[in-house]
Amino acid sequence: MKRLLPLLLLSAAGCQAGPRPEDAVTRADLLAAEARFSTKNEKNFVFYQEATNTIGQLERRVAQLESMIKSYDFEIRRLNEKLAGVRPGGVPVVTNPETRIEDAIKETDAQLARLKDGGRIDDIVLSLQPIARHAAPRACEALKGAVRDVQYMQRLEHLLSKLPAEALKMPLEDALKSGVARYAAARVVGEVGDKELSKLLEPHTADADFDFCFVVGSSLVRCKNRAGVPALLRVLRAQDKNTRFLAINSLRSLAKEDFGYDYQKAPDVNAVAIKSWEDWYEKAGAKLFE
Predict the structure, then answer these.
(1) Last residue of a domain, which of 167, 183, 217?
(2) Which of 99, 100, 248, 287 counts the highest number of beta carbons within 10 A?
(3) Is residue 271, in this structure, part of any structural domain at all?
């Protein structure tokens, strides 16, 4: 027992002495580990940036391809309409080769970027008019992404209104199906002022959204299309007094009176006045804009 005691004391002393020198982590080891970790993070960041850039390029290419497909679709529909109108034995007119659709879309995107940056609209219109058939679909598509940028939306609408009505017909018809772009599309029709183009709005004159119904009605009236009047008459029953105010103002310009309608009063209070407006349209509607 006396011989074991010194051995036990030595053993305990050894345990309290801490780790062996060969097991200790030096500052150099820590710096080396930190360097490796930093390098790995940098590589991951570079990989992330490259992946993000690649995805961005792919998204832009997909958007460009979608625009090309839509342009081809519109072109096919135009050709089918022309072929349907060719008389038996008639020969369709062969037009000169035009700019490739892909090049037209690239040029359109460049001009739309100029437009967003505040470029002169008349100059941009001059650049896009020769390729209007391909530029109009892309510009109409841009309306959907401009909802939160009021200034850009207004500039897009003004640009579109300067393009030929024939080039606008199918893109605007498509935009009118979009809950995001349909207000802008309807305003463009009114700004163009083309009666034939305004027929695109006729299926929307009874829309449940009174605000949209007003835009449709007022645009039709601007195009001298009397189908807009029933739409405005519907809006006289809107719950929002500001919407009613806009409607009665548009109608007053046609009839030169208001039949006692007061936009500040609820629709049920205005029932007699609304009936007077409807009677007026039944009598005068057929001769409007003649």
Answers:
(1) 167
(2) 248
(3) yes
Largest CA distance in the chain: 130
How many domains does the chain divide into?
Answer: 2
pLDDT confidence of residue 193: 96
CA 250 to chain centre: 27
Answer whether residue 279 is part of any domain: yes
Mean pLDDT of the chain: 82
Q: Are residue 207 and residue 277 in the same domain, yes or no? A: yes
> What dihedral angle (degrees, nearest 10) is formed by the CA atoms of 51, 57, 63, 69?
-110
Q: CA neighbours within 13 Å on the CB side: how many for 207?
A: 22
pLDDT of res. 55: 75
Whole-angstrom Cα Rg for the chain: 35
**Which helix H or strand E contains 30, and what residues bound it?**
helix 27-85
* Domain around 161: 99-167
The C-alpha atoms of residue 202 and residue 49 are separated, in whole angstroms, by 49
Say whether both 161 and 202 belong to one domain. Answer: no
Outline where 129-270 has alpha helix (H). 132-145, 150-161, 165-175, 182-192, 195-198, 210-222, 228-235, 241-255
- pLDDT confidence of residue 249: 96
Whether the predicted pLDDT of 6 surpasses 60: no
Structure tokens at 197: 């183009």
Place of tokens 């046609």: 254
Tell me what the mean pLDDT of segment 187-215 comes to. Answer: 97
Residue 238: inside a domain: yes
Q: How many CB atoms lie within 10 A of CB 285?
A: 15
Which residues have a Cβ under 8 Å from the Cβ of 195 and sit 6 or more positions away? 223, 224, 225
What is the rounded (10 degree) CA torsion for 22, 28, 32, 38? 140
